[in-house]
Amino acid sequence: MKVEQIYTGCIAHAAYYLEDQGEAAIFDPLREVQPYIDKANEDNANIKYVFETHFHADFVSGHLDLAKKTGAKIIYGPTAKPGFDALIAEDNQEFKVGRYTIKVIHTPGHTMESTTYLLVDENSKEHGIITGDTLFIGDVGRPDLAQHVIEDLTEEKLAGHLFDSLRNKIMPLSDDLIVYPNHGAGSACGKMMSQETTDTLGHQKETNYALRADMSKDEFIKELLDGLTAPPGYFPKNVLMNIQGYDSIDQVIERGQQPLNADAFEAAANETKALILDTREAEVFKDGFIPNSINIGLDNNFAQWVGELIPDIKQPILLVTDPGKEEESIIRLARVGYDHSIGYLKDGIDTWKNAQKELDQVKRIDVNGLEDFLADDGAKIIDVRKRSEYESQHVVGAENIPLNEINKHLAELPDTKFAIHCQGGYRSMIAASILKQRGFDNFVDVRGGFDKILEDDIKVTDYVCPSTLL
């Protein structure tokens, strides 16, 4: 059976491409659909169906654009109520793609419409299951997202449904089936996903905590809900976009690809109250950036942090990027529903410098300067990593303010000078840009973060707590 996983690491997302005898199907496509169309064209195939496993929360799916551009039919599982033309399949309904069969298995729990698709090859052999967020490698989908859209769907109710779906619909299937999930490690749709992105169902029955044969429903619900952190704020908004519809990605790109000189960029920022988002890497950003801009580097968990830190997905955004990265920045914003990029600084930050406009900077120190910095009376250190990272290991005396909570805790920051750090330097520069925007100037950022604190030859072990919480 020809099934290809198309994995996008920056949002830990897997789409799937199935093709046989000139017919193709796409499962859970991303917003930018041209790569799927190109793949089908290479196979001289027509995309017949777009299968959706559920209404996604962590990204805006490309189902509408893909259907419009190819004539493909959008398929959802039972109970789905989209605001556009789609075929709502019945449980156990079958669809043909060439000689292959796709069987609908309704598996509510992550959401009520969540559906698994059983893939059957040309010899009637069951090959694999495309599970969406029902079953991951090492985990299962969190059951607390639908409640943010439909109040009656409590996480306990959905967890109970998920237990039944796994026991009655998934676990009875053959051990040799390949599990094709929608996400891997790094996604906020689960809490302990594996780095692996496929596995056999039999191995998952042996190793996945949620598939233990002796687990009661009450035990399942307790373990599933234990340790769940609050989902990113943009999740419910992405769900609604996937249910109700959205602008074509082509419109979004055209709207955002407006090159602006320094004067026009400054005027647009003042007139529209747009957020200035700088997507360059931290080490470059620190040396010179437009005052009041926020740095979220494109080369890391960009979409996740945009979603965490920009509460309004309709916020107008002006971009500062490395030259040539403008369209990529626009697309990666649109993947998570931020469709209102309105222009970018033509030729990047050099345009601003050449116009002799004001620049701001963030002071960054190496680990070998941290000891002297902290020796000054009253100096503090702020750790912006997640609480779980901090509680595992942290600098003695450090205070923990996770990056996604920083705007809520500005009043707790010290009046004296302080240093900030994360694990490697990406998140701390985001935090630094936010602090600069809010008027703070009494801090430094630690280059390389906690990784360098642990690894550097300079003795800083007096400040590190390797095993004891302090």
Describe the structure.
There is one protein chain. The protein is α/β, with parallel strands linked by helices and 470 residues long. The protein has 3 domains: 3-238, Metallo-beta-lactamase, Chain A (4-Layer Sandwich); 247-354, Rhodanese-like domain (Oxidized Rhodanese, domain 1); 364-465, Rhodanese-like domain (Oxidized Rhodanese, domain 1), CATH 3.40.250. The strands form 5 sheets. Strands 1-2-3-4-5-6 form a 6-stranded mixed sheet, with helices on one face. A 6-stranded mixed sheet has the order 7-8-9-10-11-12. It is globular, with a radius of gyration of 24 Å. Helix content is 29%, strand content 21%. It has helices spanning 34-42, 63-70, 155-170, 201-207, 217-225, 235-244, 249-256, 262-272, 282-285, 302-309, 326-334, 349-354, 370-375, 387-392, 426-437, 449-455, and strands at residues 3-8, 13-20, 23-27, 46-51, 73-76, 87-88, 94-97, 100-106, 115-120, 126-132, 178-181, 199-200, 259-260, 275-278, 294-295, 317-320, 341-345, 364-365, 380-383, 394-395, 399-400, 418-421, 443-446, 464-465. It is built from 16 helices and 24 strands. Helix 9 links the parallel strand 14 and strand 15.
